[in-house]
Write a structure and sequence with these properties.
Layout (H helix, E strand, L loop, with lengths): L2 H28 L2 H8 L3 H8 L2 H8 L17 H15 L2 H9 L3 H21 L7 H21 L3 H5 L2 H17 L4
Helix pairs in contact: 1-2, 1-4, 1-6, 2-3, 5-10, 6-7, 7-8, 8-10
């Protein structure tokens, strides 16, 4: 690897890190290429050179693997708690989901990204659990409404009662609802 390649890789990484922080702080619409470049300590033209556009940069900054376990060892009666526990701790350990959620509220590309992540990563895990294929997308979407709603209120809107709750309290409140969505008979 040449020195130029190493510098290029370091510049790309600095831009991506600055973009994640800026999108998290300002949201998609208010984040600018100039601000991202300033945060990365480079010329704005370099951002455009490496990423082409704000949309392309956002798509890479919001690239996210949920790293969902398959939950195969979790008994059906504990699935809701296991899913909520996973998501609460996942949100708390990686700001990228907050970046995506904040942007998804006001930007259709970001909203589509969020739908794609949940559809491509959550549905297959639920399919492995033996959930009826004709119901799995609806069940995943309903579970998503709860998880995304809590995340929006806790990490973006920062509603004091929700922010004040411990992870264990959130799990206790949400687990029964998620359990119902995932395992109870459809209405």
């Amino acid at each position: 690897m040449t020195e130029r390649t190493r510098r290029s890789d370091a510049t790309r990484a600095a831009i991506l890190a600055a973009a994640r922080e800026r999108f998290a702080r300002d949201g998609y619409d208010r984040a600018t290429i100039r601000a991202i470049a300033a945060d990365a300590g480079i010329d704005p033209a370099m951002v455009m050179r490496y990423y082409g556009s704000k949309d392309k940069l956002f798509a890479l900054a919001a690239e996210f693997d949920l790293r969902l376990p398959d939950f195969a060892e979790v008994p059906d009666t504990e699935l809701g708690a296991a899913v909520v526990d996973f998501f609460i701790h996942r949100w708390e350990s990686d700001e990228t989901l907050v970046v995506l959620l904040r942007a998804a509220v006001t930007n259709e590309s970001a909203a589509d990204r969020m739908r794609t992540i949940f559809g491509a990563q959550v549905v297959p895990v639920l399919m492995k659990r033996g959930i009826d294929p004709s119901e799995v997308t609806a069940r995943a979407a309903l579970a998503g409404t709860q998880m995304l709603g809590v995340a929006l209120c806790r990490y973006v809107l920062q509603m004091p009662p929700v922010v004040a709750m411990t992870a264990e309290e959130l799990i206790a409140w949400l687990a029964p609802t998620i359990q119902r969505y995932l395992t109870h008979p459809a209405p």
